[in-house]
Design a protein that fits this description.
This protein has 420 residues and is of the alpha/beta class. It has 11 helices and 26 strands. The strands form 7 sheets. The chain has a 5-stranded parallel sheet. β5 and β6 form a beta hairpin. The longest helix is centred in the last third of the chain and has 15 residues. The protein starts with 7 loop residues before the first strand and ends with a helix.
Length: 420
């Protein structure tokens, strides 16, 4: 086997990759760093793509996580518009789509995920059908959205709901269809889904649950004009946005013989972000790891990308600390901000706490009597309290949470006394 080069090669140029590189340089690591991205753009923020950037409120340059000159200043070799095509673990090198080869001492996979497409047989390849992924996809979507009259959103997850909110805010006629019995079925409880459903209906979205697209209907030129649903109904639509989940970009790892998930996809890593080959790490959306004894999870969030990147940097610096950050997420829809702390996987009880204004409030999740997560809908006090309690191990009483007359500070004091 060839002697390993001391440098670090990072595959993928998103938030996780940038945070890793920045963490290493801040710590004084002067090893060579090569950051390879398939897109022609430097690392950029993705959450605004389906919101402020799509609506035209944010210019492209404000998406950049760092100014372009920062990479040269930090002695980071930024390679853009090039894909890594293979990993050779024996030679400790990667092959590039431009014919180049890069050797590594450590390799970090930050390849992220991609949207699951609507099958071509159902009309997924028609003109006017879009997914929300990166700048290129949004740049194609934005002008079509501006001229569209009727928008069909396929999928009632966060991406689909955010897209529906943007389209409706632009005055478009919007129909959202979700194949599951309710929106957000995979990620949140019925109480949270009910409040978000009511928000969209109040804003004029035609929201249909437990119904699927049989196929999209094209015109003579191959552009979408409508959809047939499996309940027999037909819709007019000159624009379709597909948000039916994501797929981990784990193909490189699989081809290299690294252990990957079957059901969820993703690359298995330990608490130090290492794959079974300790010269290779994985972080962000593509990483699959054990969480709180509830089995392997793959988290698609900015928080996970950044915190896991910092943990991986410590591993590369031989200052290893197990990754155990409290997950948090957010979603902006109209003037509502949903903030989530914790992971509700495996919950067996929920408690609804009304907010101070109509349409606001929080939902608290418990598992075997222990508080594990909170959804806060335009209720930042509930979010901050829940996040703090998760970080400190405080488990509040459900009956106190459900009573809005009891202040959250009193809830916390009571919980702390019980835990003591």
């Amino acid at each position: 086997m060839a002697q390993r080069d001391s440098g670090i090669v990072v595959v993928g140029a998103g938030q996780a990759a940038l945070t890793l590189c920045e963490s290493l340089r801040r710590a004084g690591d002067r090893r060579s760093i090569t950051l390879i991205g398939a897109e022609p753009h430097p690392p950029y923020q993705r959450p605004p793509l389906s919101k402020a950037y799509l609506s035209g409120e944010m210019p492209r340059e404000r998406l950049w996580l760092k100014p372009p000159e920062w990479y040269a200043e930090q002695d980071i070799d930024l390679v853009l518009g090039v894909e890594v095509t293979a990993i050779d673990r024996q030679r400790a090198q990667v092959s590039l789509s431009d014919g180049g080869v890069r050797a590594y001492g450590h390799l970090v996979l930050a390849t992220g995920s991609r949207p699951r497409p609507l099958p071509a047989a159902a009309g997924g390849a028609l003109g006017g059908v879009h997914v929300i992924r990166g700048i290129a996809e949004i740049d194609r979507l934005a002008p079509d959205l501006a001229s569209a009259r009727s928008v069909l959103v396929v999928g009632g997850g966060y991406i689909g709901l955010e897209a529906a909110a943007v389209a409706r805010s632009l005055g478009k006629r919007v129909t959202l269809v979700e194949a599951a019995p309710r929106i957000l079925a995979r990620v949140t409880c019925a109480e949270t889904a009910s409040m978000i459903r009511a928000l969209h209906i109040a804003r004029g979205v035609d929201l249909r649950e437990a119904v699927s697209v049989t196929h999209l209907v094209p015109d003579a030129g191959g552009a979408v004009t409508g959809a047939l649903l499996d309940d027999g109904s037909a819709l007019d639509a000159d624009l379709v946005i597909v948000g039916i989940g994501g797929v981990a970009n784990d193909g490189l790892a699989r081809s290299a013989g690294l252990r990957c998930g079957d059901r969820t996809g993703g690359v298995y890593v330990d608490a130090l972000c290492r794959t079974e080959d300790h010269a290779i790490l994985a972080i962000g959306d593509v990483a699959l790891f054990e969480f709180d004894g509830r089995g392997p999870v793959r988290l698609e969030s900015v928080q996970n990308a950044c915190d896991q990147a910092r943990a991986a940097a410590l591993t590369l610096l031989a200052r290893s600390e197990a990754y155990d950050a409290v997950p948090w997420f957010w979603s902006d829809q109209y003037d509502m901000k949903l903030q989530i702390a914790g992971l509700n996987q495996g919950f067996d009880k929920t408690v609804l706490r009304p907010g101070r204004r109509p349409g606001t409030g929080s939902v608290w999740y418990f598992r075997e009597g222990r508080f594990i997560a909170v959804d806060a809908l335009s209720d930042p006090r509930a979010y901050m309290a829940g996040k703090r309690w998760l970080e400190t191990g405080v488990s509040p009483r459900p009956d106190h949470l459900s009573d809005p007359r009891i202040d959250l500070k009193e809830v916390a004091l009571e919980a702390a006394e019980v835990d003591a």
